């Protein structure tokens, strides 16, 4: 399986602008720039997209772990915070912090944590990130 996205950039790094488009159409000429990455201008940035990918991948992986163990969640809500830090003359994505809120009838905390840790370690996005990954959860 292959998934594609395209980036088009015009101008310099700081003053230029670009847009991102995915084959699915979810992103269609979505703007990104220095200001959307390092300031708060409307648009997206690579770190936000990685955070969305990590949150989505982990949450789906956990749903499969729970299903395999005989549990059906009523809700899994994950926030991922991706940290971009200076490194040498550039930057590095240093961390992805997952925060999960879960409602899973009939599961105890120890079993839930075991399955959540498996999902954290084994989702494909976790495997591709060269960064520290943390996971905190609340089971309600």
Q: Return the average pLDDT rounded to an integer.
A: 97
Question: What strand line-up does the widest sheet have?
Answer: 1-2-3
Which class of secondary structure composition applies to the elements?
A: alpha+beta
| CATH class annotation of the largest domain | Alpha Beta
Stretches where pLDDT falls below 50 for ≥5 residues? Answer: none
Share of β-strand residues: 35-45%
**How does the major sheet shape up?**
3 strands, antiparallel
Briefly note the CATH topology name of the largest domain: GMP Synthetase, Chain A, domain 3
Protein name: OsmC family protein
Region (Disordered): 1-22
Pfam family, one: OsmC
GO molecular function, one term: peroxidase activity
Describe this structure as you would to a colleague.
Pfam families: OsmC. One of its GO terms (biological process) is response to oxidative stress. This is OsmC family protein. This protein is α+β, with helices and mostly antiparallel strands. The chain has 2 domains: about 5-40, no CATH class; about 45-140, 2-Layer Sandwich (GMP Synthetase, Chain A, domain 3). Helices cover about 35% and strands about 35% of the residues. It has helices at about 35-40, 45-70, 110-120, 125-130; strands spanning about 5-10, 15-20, 30-35, 75-85, 90-105, 130-140. The strands form 2 sheets. A 3-stranded antiparallel sheet has the order 1-2-3. It has a 3-stranded mixed sheet with strand order 4-5-6, covered by helices on one side. α2 packs across α3. It is elongated. The mean pLDDT is about 95.
